[in-house]
């Protein structure tokens, strides 16, 4: 979702109509929906948060121990390569982290600084090849479009590894870099917020396929970070009351999900509640080992923990990391990570936990 711990400020005045269109709904700061079905995602919230949404251009000259490349295709991919894995030298292949960005299925882009600063650091720390997926956005593209796109990204990785096709994106020099550097037998799905939901959904779909149908690609693990797992009914908690000023509210999440879920679906839908009564019994769902990161002060902490307990009860291999004193997606706020010692330490703990998880699987 949005960067954590940014207080709401008076918003800029937004006109009620643009070019003859009328605004029929607005998600505070993030997007306006018009009567013709079009969407404006121009940021209208606190101006100090805007730099976190600025796109970072790719670069082939190493910076801070890595290079950054864009691979256009369906979907578009962004690739972080640790230094030393783009010079054509024979080296040990690296695990792949497929990053599925958050944003309530409705906003954000993997090129934004908020994602860049964390995933560039993660690529170097593991070390691993980080591949960020440009996901479709609702309401123009409702679920399961996001799941289908993530699956398509995995198919692209498999095709690159096996050289099954020789056209389109696979002709790109970045594909050659991936072919040399990436060990697709160790793919780890990592997603934040709504991207955490996708980790579960995509892993389940891949592992439900016939044995060896994805070979040589293998999903070796999943890391949902503060997944957007919710229930249809909830009570207003003390935590929610205290957190109303932060840049993530349950009302905001409710609006996003209303636009993202299939028409007529409630939050008990398996896309948002994989342990609920509408979802397949978790005992019947094949999943890889999971590391679930839960923020102690997250408004959806309780449903995150309920999900972890349901995985355990179903006999799944799951580890839980509690981010003490932190709010939803805290680690994406580069300014807090850089300037606040506690936030910086918790971000380091998260990176260390992912590094350890990858090394053990």
Automatic annotation (TrEMBL):
Pfam families: Abhydrolase_3. Residues 97-331 form the Alpha/beta hydrolase fold-3 domain. Transmembrane segments: none annotated. Coiled coil: none annotated. InterPro entries: AB_hydrolase_3 (IPR013094), AB_hydrolase_fold (IPR029058), Carboxylest/Gibb_receptor (IPR050466). Residues 1-21 are annotated as: Disordered. Gene3D superfamilies: alpha/beta hydrolase (3.40.50.1820). One of its GO terms (molecular function) is hydrolase activity. Residues 1-17 have a biased composition (Low complexity). This is Alpha/beta hydrolase fold-3 domain-containing protein. It comes from Digitaria exilis.
């Amino acid at each position: 979702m949005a960067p954590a711990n940014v207080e709401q400020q008076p918003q800029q005045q937004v006109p009620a109509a643009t070019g003859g269109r009328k605004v029929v709904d607005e998600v505070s700061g993030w997007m306006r929906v018009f009567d013709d079905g079009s969407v404006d995602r121009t940021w209208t919230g606190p101006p100090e948060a805007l730099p976190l949404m600025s796109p970072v251009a790719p670069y082939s000259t190493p910076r801070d121990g890595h290079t950054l490349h864009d691979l256009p295709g369906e979907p578009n991919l962004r690739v972080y390569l640790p230094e030393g894995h783009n010079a054509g030298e024979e080296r040990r292949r690296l695990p792949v982290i497929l990053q599925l960005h958050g944003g309530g299925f409705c906003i954000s882009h993997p090129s934004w600084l908020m994602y860049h600063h964390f995933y560039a650091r993660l690529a170097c720390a593991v070390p691993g090849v980080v591949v960020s997926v440009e996901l479709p956005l609702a309401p123009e593209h409702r679920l399961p479009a996001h799941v289908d796109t993530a699956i398509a990204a995995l198919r692209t990785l498999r095709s690159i590894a096996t050289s099954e096709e020789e056209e389109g994106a696979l002709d790109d020099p970045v594909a050659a870099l991936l072919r040399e550097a990436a060990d697709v037998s160790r793919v780890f799905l990592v997603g934040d917020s709504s991207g955490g939901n996708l980790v579960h959904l995509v892993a389940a779909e891949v592992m439900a396929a016939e044995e060896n149908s994805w070979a040589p690609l293998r999903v070796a693990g999943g890391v949902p970070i503060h997944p957007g797992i919710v229930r249809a009914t909830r009570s207003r908690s003390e935590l929610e009351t205290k957190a109303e000023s932060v840049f993530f509210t349950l009302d905001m999440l409710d609006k996003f999900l209303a636009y993202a879920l299939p028409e007529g679906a409630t939050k008990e839908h398996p896309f948002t509640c994989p342990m609920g009564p509408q979802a397949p019994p978790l005992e019947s769902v094949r999943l890889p080992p999971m590391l679930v990161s839960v923020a102690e002060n997250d408004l959806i902490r309780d449903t995150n923990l309920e999900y972890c307990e349901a995985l355990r009860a179903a006999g799944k291999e799951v580890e839980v990391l509690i981010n003490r004193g932190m709010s939803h997606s805290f680690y994406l706020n580069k300014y807090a990570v850089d300037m606040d010692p506690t936030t910086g330490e918790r971000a380091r703990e998260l990176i260390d936990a992912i590094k350890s998880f990858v090394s053990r699987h």
